[in-house]
Specification:
280 residues; mainly alpha; two-stranded antiparallel ribbon; 10 helices; 4 strands; globular
Length: 280
C-alpha cells in the first residue's frame, strides 16, 4: 500500500495523517449541517469540536511522553517520531480527553448535551471512516493472515509500514481497516437519516455508540492481536471490551426518558440562543 502520500524534497507527507486530517475537516463541516438540523448554535458546535480535537491530541501525546519518558531523556529527538505511533490505548486516551473537554465546554456554554451529542454522531462516524482508510493505506492496525486465494487481501511492501506500524511485509492480510471504514461510513449515513426522526434528545448519539461498538467488536476478529491486550485466554481483546462498554452505554442512552425529550431540549436551546442574542 502507500504509507507515504507524497514527497516534498526530503519532507514526506504520511498518508495516515493526511486522510485523518481530511476526515476531521469533513466531519467539522458536516457538524455545521447537523447542528442546524437539531437547532443548536453551529458556531458553538464548531468551537466545541476544535477544542475537543486539541484536547484529544494533547491527551495522546502526553500519554506517549509519560510512557516513554526514560527513553526520551536519553534521545530527545525521538519526540518528533511519536506522531507516527498508533495504539489502541492512545485512541482510548484521546477519546477520554476529547470527550471530557466536550462535556466541559457544553456545560460551560449551557448547551443541551443530548442535542449536541446527536449533532456530532454522524460526523464522528465519518471521521472514523477516514481514519481507518488512512490506516489501511499506511498499514496501521493491520489484519490477520489471509488465504492467498482471498481476492481482496492486501500485501504491504513498503519499509515505512514495517518501521512505523510493525506491519508484516510480503504476506496477504485481511484489509480489516477497510472493513471498519465501510462500517463507519454506513453508520454515518444511517445516523444522518435517523437524525430528523429522533424521538428524544440523545437517541442518535446512543445509536452511534452502539454502532461503533458493533463495528469495533466484529472487525477485531480479523485484526492482528499483537499489542491489543488479549483477555480471557484470547477470547476478547482490549478494543472488544471497549466495544462492549460502548454498546451498554448506547443502550442506557436510548432508554426512554420522561423529562429529556427533543422538544424540551429544543426549548432550552432556543432560550439559550435568545439569552445570547439579548446579551449581544
Amino acid at each position: 500500500m502507500h504509507p507515504v502520500l507524497f514527497h516534498l524534497g526530503s519532507l514526506f507527507i504520511p498518508t495516515y495523517g493526511a486522510l485523518t486530517a481530511a476526515g476531521v475537516l469533513l466531519a467539522l463541516f458536516l457538524a455545521q449541517r447537523t447542528a442546524h438540523l437539531v437547532q443548536v448554535d453551529a458556531a458553538e458546535v464548531w468551537n466545541l469540536c476544535v477544542l475537543s480535537l486539541f484536547a484529544a491530541l494533547a491527551g495522546e501525546r502526553l500519554l506517549l511522553v509519560a510512557v516513554n519518558w526514560s527513553v526520551l531523556q536519553l534521545h530527545p529527538s525521538w519526540l518528533l517520531g511519536l506522531a507516527m505511533v498508533h495504539h489502541p490505548l492512545l485512541a482510548g486516551a484521546g477519546a477520554l480527553s476529547g470527550g471530557a473537554c466536550a462535556a466541559w465546554y457544553a456545560r460551560r456554554k449551557k448547551l443541551p448535551a443530548g442535542t449536541v451529542a446527536d449533532a456530532l454522531a454522524a460526523p464522528l462516524a465519518l471521521g472514523l471512516a477516514f481514519e481507518q482508510l488512512g490506516a489501511l493505506l499506511a498499514g496501521s492496525g493491520y489484519g490477520t493472515d489471509a488465504a492467498t486465494s482471498l481476492p481482496w487481501a492486501v500485501t504491504y511492501t513498503s519499509t515505512y509500514a514495517a518501521r512505523w506500524s510493525g506491519t508484516p511485509l510480503g504476506i496477504p492480510l485481511h484489509p480489516v481497516q477497510g472493513y471498519a471504514a465501510l462500517a463507519f461510513l454506513t453508520l454515518s449515513i444511517f445516523l444522518l437519516v435517523c437524525l430528523p426522526e429522533r424521538r428524544q434528545a440523545g437517541d442518535v448519539a446512543g445509536l452511534c455508540l452502539m454502532g461503533i461498538g458493533v463495528a469495533v467488536y466484529f472487525t477485531e476478529r480479523w485484526r492482528d492481536p499483537e499489542g491489543r491486550g488479549l483477555l480471557l485466554n484470547g477470547a476478547l481483546d482490549g478494543p472488544q471490551v471497549a466495544a462492549i462498554v460502548l454498546l451498554l452505554a448506547g443502550a442506557v442512552i436510548l432508554r426512554e426518558r420522561k423529562k429529556s425529550t427533543v422538544r424540551h431540549e429544543a426549548a432550552e436551546s432556543s432560550e439559550t440562543q435568545n439569552e445570547i442574542q439579548g446579551q449581544s
